[in-house]
Amino acid sequence: MKASQVWQRGSKDMTAMPPPRQRGAAKKPMWIIVLLSLVCVALIGAYAYPPRRYSACYFFASSVCTPFKDWLPTVTRRERTDEEIVSSVVMRDLLAMPMPVSKNPKIALMFLTPGSLPFEKLWEKFLQGHEGRYSIYIHASRERPVHSSSLFVGREIHSEKVVWGRISMVDAEKRLLANALEDVDNQFFVLLSDSCVPLHTFDYIYNFLMGTNVSFIDCFLDPGPHGSGRYSVEMLPEIEQRDFRKGAQWFAVTRRHALLILADHLYYNKFELYCKPAEGRNCIADEHYLPTLFNMVDPGGISNWSVTHVDWSEGKWHPRSYRAIDVTYALLKNITAIKENFRITSDDKKVVTMTPCMWNGTKRPCYLFARKFYPEALNNLLKHSSYTST
């Protein structure tokens, strides 16, 4: 058939064609209207209540949110309270001002103990011949100590009751610092427990601490339930969750940082009110207060690791304790040889990190002291103390 014949129609063909049907009215796309309405509501909400951080910009990546920043209203800076301004000024000047230079710098050994110190004879051997280079302070929270060494007689300070995990533990630390700071020659302040022992000679520890200007405070970010999970939103606005840190209680701090700890009231008050054990988040004040404080006010001035070794490898609420049978030359040698700080997060991922212990830019053994040792281990510790020779 020819193409021309295909398109040619007669009048008969035209009359045979049915009339065109009239189309009904188009249905309104309701789902589109609902979607657009929701988007408009979301945009109005974002306009009226912009997020505190653009990193969470409307649940999208920051690159997607960038166009919105141009027309969103400028987020005004939060007006600080009088206490925040006072705290900022005091800490700024403390960190900037020169510290007095002592002609006879000493280490303050601050013992936080419920009662007697079972290793006084070991400490006596450690301190022998170094009179005038150290000071001793004892905070006994339960009973007056019975001393086995004359070096510790009369070294008790006024003490108050201490409850594990509560702010009273931090109060005791501050009480020790205040008493030790009265001696202008004390330049480094070491917090110790009744179960702590020295790992090196006095000269080694003295030169290690006096030879650097950083404080040894353990500080790391743990996203798990025993880290950031203990944070309370009631600490806002002064302390945000991103600033919340965790670390071991046992510190060694410079005189400058000791003064800073005593000067702080703003952040201390937040921990006093909102960091308590067995209250939902089970927050342990002495594990979080100092790490969080220094992470916020002077993160570059701390080591982020403690010079006191504690073995948490058993994964329990309390660290491993060493009995007499455990204390051998090999054990002590292994602890003193550790040059990396071990950490594991408390979340399901159990992320392990090993960080080298740096002293003035050089990798050095991490630990000067160790805990926890049972009193029965004294004789073995005295027997193997010869390993501390350097």
From TrEMBL:
UniProt keyword annotation of Ion transport present: no
Region of interest (Disordered), ranges: 1-23
Cell compartments where the protein resides: Membrane
A Pfam family that the UniProt record links to this protein: Branch
InterPro entries registered for this protein in UniProt: BC10-like (IPR044174), Glyco_trans_14 (IPR003406)
Keyword annotations of the record: Glycoprotein, Glycosyltransferase, Membrane, Transferase
Membrane topology: Single-pass type II membrane protein
UniProt keyword Transport present: no
Gene Ontology molecular function: glycosyltransferase activity
CC terms in the record's Gene Ontology section: membrane
PANTHER family, per database record: CORE-2/I-BRANCHING BETA-1,6-N-ACETYLGLUCOSAMINYLTRANSFERASE FAMILY PROTEIN-RELATED, OS02G0175500 PROTEIN
Protein's name in the database: Glycosyltransferase
Source species: Oryza glumipatula
